[in-house]
């Protein structure tokens, strides 16, 4: 049976998934979106991207290498190994709540190849944050991600499907895992 929740309750639940005190939440960027497009106070979203592709093809100086650098890891996140065959340049994560990263790493790294395959290629400097909540029994209860109404919506839905079957050790409470995929 499917339950329907009033929008006010859903909004409260989503607000509870925000970053912890003093933590910066990654801000998603779409293809062609640059760090300069972010709102004031947002964490850096990566190097500027030339959406028109009009840069000098012969550039080899520091500006050229900066354009190809992957999005920086937000403060408070730890880098994970990028699975073989993944098109993203980096993956980072943070665990908040009743579990340690060590207790959750094996299950998460087992699911990362499927998640990274879902997300496919991104533009240089693009970032995509996802999060999921693990209940006390170790099952994934909720998975969230941006871009549900955009061209990235199918990618995010695929990634959510890949994360859903993960199982973690039981604990005394919930834990929120925040993932950051950068290209």
On the 0 to 100 scale, the average pLDDT is 73
The biggest beta sheet is recorded as:
5 strands, antiparallel
- Strand order, main sheet: write it out: 1-2-5-3-4
N-end to C-end Cα span: 39 Å
Helix percentage: 25-40%
| Order of helical and strand elements | HHEEHEEHE
Radius of gyration: 17 Å
Number of domains: 1
Number of strands: 5
Task: Please tell me what the overall shape is.
Answer: globular
Q: What is the beta-strand fraction?
A: 15-25%
Low-confidence stretches: 1-22, 31-66
Task: Decide which structural class fits the backbone.
Answer: alpha+beta
Number of discrete helical segments: 4
Lay out the secondary structure.
Layout: H1 7-16, H2 62-68, E1 78-80, E2 90-97, H3 101-119, E3 127-134, E4 140-144, H4 153-163, E5 175-182
Antiparallel strand pairs: 1-2, 2-5, 3-4, 3-5
Helix pairs in contact: 3-4
């Amino acid at each position: 049976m499917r339950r329907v929740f009033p929008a006010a309750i859903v909004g409260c639940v989503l607000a509870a998934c925000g970053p912890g005190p003093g933590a910066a939440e990654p801000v998603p960027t779409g293809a062609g979106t640059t760090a300069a497009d972010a709102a004031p106070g947002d964490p850096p979203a990566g190097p500027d991207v030339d959406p028109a592709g009009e840069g000098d093809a012969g550039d080899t100086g520091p500006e050229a290498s900066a354009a190809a650098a992957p999005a920086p890891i937000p403060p408070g996140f730890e880098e994970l190994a990028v699975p073989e065959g993944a098109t993203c340049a980096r993956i980072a994560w943070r665990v908040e709540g009743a579990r340690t990263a060590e207790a959750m790493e094996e299950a998460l790294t087992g699911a990362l190849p499927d998640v990274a395959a879902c997300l496919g290629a991104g533009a240089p400097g693009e970032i995509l944050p996802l999060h999921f909540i693990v209940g006390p029994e170790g099952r994934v209860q909720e998975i969230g991600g941006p871009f549900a109404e955009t061209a990235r919506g199918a990618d995010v839905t695929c990634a959510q499907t890949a994360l859903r079957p993960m199982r973690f050790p039981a604990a005394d409470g919930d834990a929120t895992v925040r993932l950051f995929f950068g290209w």
